[in-house]
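Hi support team,

I submitted a single chain yesterday and got back a structure, but I'm not sure I'm reading the token output correctly. Could someone confirm the output below corresponds to the sequence I sent? I've pasted both exactly as they appear in my results page.

Thanks,
R.
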Amino acid sequence: MPLLKVIVASTRPGRIGRGIGDWFAGHAAEHGGFDVEIIDLAEVGLPFLDEPEHASTGNYVHQHSKEWSATIGEADAFVFVMPEYNYAFSAPLKNAIDFLYYEWRYKPVGFVSYGGMSGGLRAVQMMKQVVTTLRMVPAGEAVTVFTRRQLDADGRLTVDEGLSASATGMLDELGQLTAAMSAMRSAS
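Hi R., thanks for writing in. Yes, this is the structure output for that exact sequence:
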């Protein structure tokens, strides 16, 4: 089965992203279309980009970069679980993306976004410009969590039928994209 890496993008103390990521990873495992692995950028702990050469060279000198390259390189598809901070995506996510180049190519990506008023949709729109530059293909289906409505009093995600259906739809589309794009990766 293809390998889906679910990347939790927030590293902020007290964040809600890990809980949302855990729910989505569980849903993806139940879906059955992928082997699923969760990656928490707070646990990965990448420093601010510190490689002396551009990522497109693939010449990584730091062990953390080599490990990150292997982690991302083995994936067939991604889902970014991402908050919206000030109308944009989080700096740790952008940093994690910028460490690499070819490892992202010709792989589909889905978005589970969250935030107050917009559910993180503005951040997703900005992130689509980044991922398409790397030749990733964003899924049209997405999961949007409106934190003011979908978190309980303890800050836990309340999963309803609509949220589950969105997740399933995105996973179905990611499965189709993954199959189609595997040939592109083999040819490059």
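A quick pointer for reading it: The first helix runs from residue 17 to 31. Let us know if anything else looks off.

Best,
Support desk
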